[in-house]
Each structure stands twice: as C-alpha cells, then as structure tokens.
Amino acid sequence: MREIQDTIESLLGELSQTAQKRLTRIASRLYGADPAGPMETARLLEDLPTLASRLIRVANKVHHGAGISATNLQAAVIRLGTDRTKSLILAHEIAELVSQATQRVSDTGIFWQTSLTRGSLARAVAIKRNSRVAAMAFLVGFLQDLGVLLIAARQPREYRSLLERSEGCSLRLAVLEWQSLNFNHIHVVVALLARLGLPSLLVEAIGRHHTNPPVG
Questions:
Q1: Listed residue (214, 133, 151) closest to 187, CA to CA
Q2: From its phi and psi, is residue 213 left (phi > 0), alpha (psi between -120 and 50) or beta?
Q3: Could you report the per-residue pLDDT of 170-189, keeping only the tens digit for each?
Q4: What is the pTM of this model?
C-alpha cells in the first residue's frame, strides 16, 4: 500500500504546487466551515476575470430569467444559483490545474468535452431526484475520470495500450489499470481531491463511481 501511495504522490507531484495551494484556498472559501454565499462567491470571481465574464453572459441568457440584465457578479451568481456557480468555479480551476500538466496528451479536448457532457447529464438527473445536490452531481460527473488524464500524461505509451484494450469501457479500464499498475484512475483522482480539501461527499461519491453505493 505504501508503494502505491508513493507512486500516486509522485504522479501528483508533477502538478504545480503553487496552483494546488491556490485551489485549496478556493475550495476552503467555497465549501469550508462557513460556506460562501452569493456575495462571497462573487468576490472570489473578481480574481477570475475570464470565468467571471463568461458566467455573466450565461446568466443573461433568456432561460435564466427576463428583465434587467445582470450587470455585476453578485447579480449573476444569484441568477445562476450560488451552488451552481461554485461548482463551475471549482470545475474551471481544477481543469486549469490539470491542463498545465497534461499538455503532452493528445485528444484532451475530447476528454474535457466528454467530462462536461457527463457532468451536465449527472446534474440533469439530480434535478429530477433531489435538486439540492445537483451542483455536487455535476462535479462528480465532471471530475470522476480526471485520473485517466493524469496517468496518461505520466505514462503515455503504456497507457495508450490500456486504453485500446479497454475498448472504451471505463470499468474495464479501471481493472486493466489495477492489473498493470497496482492502482487505477479512481485512486489518483480521490488522492488529488482529498489533498485539495474538497467535501467528503464529493470525494466519496467519485471514489465509488465503479461500485454500487451504500444502501443508506
């Protein structure tokens, strides 16, 4: 077990330590002991101008309500929903962190598009069942295969063979990873998200995405 932990730590060590610390601070502000409300979330967005301008544009689309346009960040956060905005901030920042270390991997555009689609579908399902967890469901869907990208960046040739043998089946890929590496992409993403201080509900859900959930 210690050898597995050391290998995963070495893999995650290739991510920017400065960016990891910054992300930990963001996660703490969003989901810490005193979770961010609309005003605090808007203040955090002030440090993310590119994302902020995108979110204001999205908030002003027709299906987010008619009337006076959201001309400031707090109005945009309220119109989009605080939880949804927080999940988008976190998804954006984690994607930025990982992208810096995975530039050598081909088809990353397809990976992120697939992740975004999966997250959006998870959110849509959650809205029908329990809208209070819809934002968290988006993050689970979006982040669950993040470990795939990190392993592929570290071992591109060997991992491409595993991807080809998996024939597009994520569960089969996890088994092949375990047989070849003694760990799989689930271990990697769980280790990263736990290090960043993300909510245990999110980390545990991702850690179980190839197993049946507890009955409770």
A1: 151
A2: beta
A3: 888 888 988 988 888 999 99
A4: 0.86
